[in-house]
Amino acid sequence: MKQLTGKTAIVTGANSGIGLEASKVFSGLGAQIIMAVRDLEKGKAARELILDVDKDALVTVMKLDLADLASVHAFVESFKNKHDSLDLLINNAGVMTPPYSKTKDGFELQFGSNHLGHFALTGLLMPLLKNTPDSRVVSLSSLAHKGAKIDFDNLDGAKGYKAMKFYGQSKLANLLFAQELDKRFKAYDLQTVSIACHPGISATNLFKFGKRDAPKLMKSLMHNFLQPPAMGALPTIYAATDSRLTGGEYIGPDGKGQRKGYPTLDTPHASAGDQAVAQKLWDVSEKLTGVQFDFSKV
Fold first, then answer.
1. How would CATH label the architecture of 8-289?
2. Which candidate in 35, 56, 64, 141 could, as Cys together with 75 as Cys, close a disulfide (CB 3.0–4.6 Å)?
3. Which residues form a coiled coil (predicted)?
């Protein structure tokens, strides 16, 4: 891992799970961390966990609700008022299999939060990313992308909703976005790179059961068969810090079925290889969010 002293990193969903574990490592490597969180109180508690280990850690908590485009715009404006560069953007936050619901802007919650919110965030941060040498965007996908498809005729779920199906669609969108973003960085000869990763199957706060936590027996099974968040965060850390990566890679665990283990290069499912779908998803995402990417050099 390369040292991150003097670097600035935004980590969405940094208050728990993979986001928190990655933030701990990035902070230990010297980075200034922006914990972009929906719940400020939980974010402040997570910040204290990092400061308990390193009282000199540079950690700031900022409000970001990816299910609200106004919040995304406000976050970016606030960040740009204080920073003129951005070395790492970790598109980590996500929701998994909620009951059918919508974002503030009327998007199906999983597609809206997991994909469109991060799409808008990345696009709005482009001026800083492209002008920061060797900057990186790391986007978290999931094993759930395998076999998923983008249903352009039912993105809002109005024609029927199955929670796991829509989760898979959102994580396929994350992967398609990450790959397409890197192609465009290279096409415009920019130094910024985009890398996708997935945590395997990790015991994080995504595994909730309605409004209640998992039963004790389920918790025991989860910890026996799923890897802890610190291990699940390793592909994210690898994607963000390994100097051998050149952009466009997909990083995941090296164990059986890519469910557990240490980070290595993984191969996306064939569903992530359709360039026409990737292009259409990009165009639809720009239209829905109203955010267009500016790849031109200043």
1. 3-Layer(aba) Sandwich (3.40)
2. 64
3. none
